[in-house]
């Protein structure tokens, strides 16, 4: 399934998963949280998600390297500071947090099941292909970084 590698912009993928979660909601058993609890959790998780993703984008912009995940070969610098000291993929991790919060807000067990599917997809068709390209560009520097910072958390 190499034809899927680096093809779908991750933001579009998140939108597809949001729509899928909405569709599954009507068939799903409820998680069991009250509305106010779900809303507060969703807001808190969304804020964390946004901060994480935006921090990643800001560090890329500061380093003057590409933010477009479909073209990692245009990377001008390996960013390893800031949030990148804790996770190699803060933008994708932010998406995971957002989808988790959204499924909690929907109160839908089936929607929550889509989160690991998102993680698997983004890992196989986005992150691993990106890492292969980064290895070619940055060689030993990327190996050292990869060995010291986890892919997710």
From TrEMBL:
<feature type="transmembrane region" description="Helical">
    <location>
        <begin position="6"/>
        <end position="27"/>
    </location>
</feature>
<keyword id="KW-0812">Transmembrane</keyword>
<feature type="transmembrane region" description="Helical">
    <location>
        <begin position="91"/>
        <end position="124"/>
    </location>
</feature>
<dbReference type="InterPro" id="IPR007318">
    <property type="entry name" value="Phopholipid_MeTrfase"/>
</dbReference>
<feature type="transmembrane region" description="Helical">
    <location>
        <begin position="39"/>
        <end position="60"/>
    </location>
</feature>
<keyword id="KW-1133">Transmembrane helix</keyword>
<dbReference type="Pfam" id="PF04191">
    <property type="entry name" value="PEMT"/>
</dbReference>
<keyword id="KW-0472">Membrane</keyword>
<protein>
    <submittedName>
        <fullName>Isoprenylcysteine carboxylmethyltransferase family protein</fullName>
    </submittedName>
</protein>
